[in-house]
């Protein structure tokens, strides 16, 4: 008997419940509006390349230039010999753009969340986390060994009562996505700020889907809602709207000094390739100088939401470029995704555990590269597809 035989059973169980996922292979470049999968050209509504930067010439040329002058690999963790001039320049520019004292680059947004939370709280502490926070936040909470209190989604009354009833801990940390990755809704940041102040808690937010898209300067939802001041720790990613790869944290110099000493995903992991930092620098320049991209993508998404709501589809409280169509049942969701694909649209079906049971949904990501026509065509296709579901 093979010790791994149990895997056949659990995979068969996932198959039976329509929860098994299969790896896809994209052909050609990643573009936020178009994708070729299995030989089929599809309008791509499944990409986080919100500003259409991932395959643009500026990023390509920046990365090629850095590879030509510096090669590819970083060779070691940043504390040893892996941190190069382009990493340092990107950290300086991120800090300046984010209006923060300092920034620290991680190899991914996932690593940034996990390493940061586990460096800020430990056994004698408590962390308060929105129930729909991203998996990397959940994993950071678990790894930290702190007491974990999960509050109902965006429910600050629940959070307040949990904060009030948690006695005798050394430190408290409140942590939330600012733009929820599946529902496309925004966190109640002013209320989180006020609660953090009242309870002397640290406040950490994850702007992964909002960086580059929200706020006048593109810094995210904190900027958009005027809530930057009370936030102690801001996480972002370079891998979504910025079209590159890697994660970052911005905050005070002391915070960054501590994380660079104690965040294990930073200390014990090889620095991202410098070419990736070069691509992110090029992306940052575009985000700073082309604010119309974020205005236009949010306008396209608002048009889509309006059309879907007018047709009676359930898009929940989405207020961003992420527009879910909530169908509830995994089977109906995957059927709808397959039918949309047949009609030429990639719209991923999202099932548990990425969303809670009973909340399976189609997740539409609108990007700056989409045309109004593509948005209208998708709205029509969605309405017909869902109307015809058994
Ligand atoms: N936070 C959120 C809210 C995310 O959605 C993601 C990626 N799906 C991450 C963090 C992780 O970022 P990265 O992809 O750069 O690891």
In short:
With 390 residues, the protein is α/β, with parallel strands linked by helices. The protein is built from 15 helices and 14 strands. The structure holds 4'-deoxy-4'-aminopyridoxal-5'-phosphate.
Task: Please write out the topology.
Layout: H1 6-16, E1 26-27, E2 34-37, E3 40-44, H2 57-70, H3 78-82, H4 85-97, E4 102-106, H5 109-120, E5 126-130, H6 135-144, E6 147-151, H7 156-165, E7 172-177, H8 189-198, E8 202-206, H9 221-224, E9 233-237, E10 247-251, H10 253-262, H11 264-267, H12 274-289, H13 291-310, E11 322-328, H14 330-342, E12 345-346, E13 349-350, E14 360-365, H15 372-387
Helix pairs in contact: 2-12, 4-12, 5-6, 13-15
Radius of gyration from the alpha-carbon trace, in angstroms? 21 Å
Helix percent band? 40-55%
The CA-CA distance between the termini, in Å, is 43 Å
Please outline the major beta sheet.
7 strands, mixed
Poorly predicted runs: none
Structural class: alpha/beta
SSE pattern, N- to C-terminal: HEEEHHHEHEHEHEHEHEEHHHHEHEEEH
Please report the number of helical segments.
15
In the sheet with the most strands, the strands line up as 4-10-9-8-7-5-6
**Strand segment count:** 14
- What's the mean pLDDT score? 96
Shape: globular
What ions, cofactors and ligands are bound? 4'-deoxy-4'-aminopyridoxal-5'-phosphate
């Amino acid at each position: 008997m093979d010790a791994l035989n149990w895997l056949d059973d659990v995979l068969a169980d996932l198959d039976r419940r329509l929860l098994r996922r299969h790896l896809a292979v994209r052909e050609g470049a990643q573009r936020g509006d178009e994708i070729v999968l299995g030989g089929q050209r599809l309008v791509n509504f499944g990409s986080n390349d919100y500003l259409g930067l991932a395959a643009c010439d500026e990023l390509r040329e920046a990365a090629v230039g850095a590879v030509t002058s510096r090669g590819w690999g970083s060779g070691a963790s940043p504390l040893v010999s892996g941190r190069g001039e382009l990493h340092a320049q990107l950290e300086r520019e991120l800090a300046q753009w984010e209006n923060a004292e300092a920034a620290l680059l991680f190899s991914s947004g996932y690593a940034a969340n996990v390493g940061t939370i586990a460096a800020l709280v430990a056994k004698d502490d408590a962390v308060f986390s929105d129930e729909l926070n991203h998996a990397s936040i959940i994993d950071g909470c678990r790894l930290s060994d702190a007491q974990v209190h999960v509050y109902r989604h965006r429910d600050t009354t629940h959070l307040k009562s949990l904060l009030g009833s948690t006695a005798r801990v050394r430190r408290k940390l409140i942590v939330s996505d600012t733009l929820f990755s599946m529902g496309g809704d925004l966190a109640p940041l002013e209320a989180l700020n006020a609660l953090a102040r009242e309870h002397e808690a640290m406040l950490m937010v994850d702007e992964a889907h909002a960086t580059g898209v929200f706020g006048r300067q593109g810094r995210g939802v904190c900027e958009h809602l005027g809530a930057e001041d009370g936030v102690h720790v801001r996480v972002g990613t370079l891998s979504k709207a910025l079209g590159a790869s890697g994660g970052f944290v911005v905050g005070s110099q002391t915070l960054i000094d501590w994380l660079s000493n104690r965040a294990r995903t930073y200390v014990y992991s090889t620095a991202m390739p410098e070419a990736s930092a070069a691509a992110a620098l090029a992306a940052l320049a575009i985000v700073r100088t082309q604010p119309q991209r974020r205005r236009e993508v949010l306008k396209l998404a608002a048009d889509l939401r309006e059309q879907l709501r007018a047709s009676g589809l359930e898009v929940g409280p989405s207020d961003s470029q992420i527009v879910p169509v909530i169908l509830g049942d995994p089977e109906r969701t995957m059927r709808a995704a397959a039918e949309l694909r047949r009609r030429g649209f990639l719209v991923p079906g999202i099932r548990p555990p990425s969303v809670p049971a009973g909340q399976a949904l189609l997740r539409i990501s609108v990007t700056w590269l989409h045309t109004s026509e593509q948005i209208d065509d998708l709205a029509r296709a969605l309405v017909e597809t869902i109307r015809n579901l058994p």
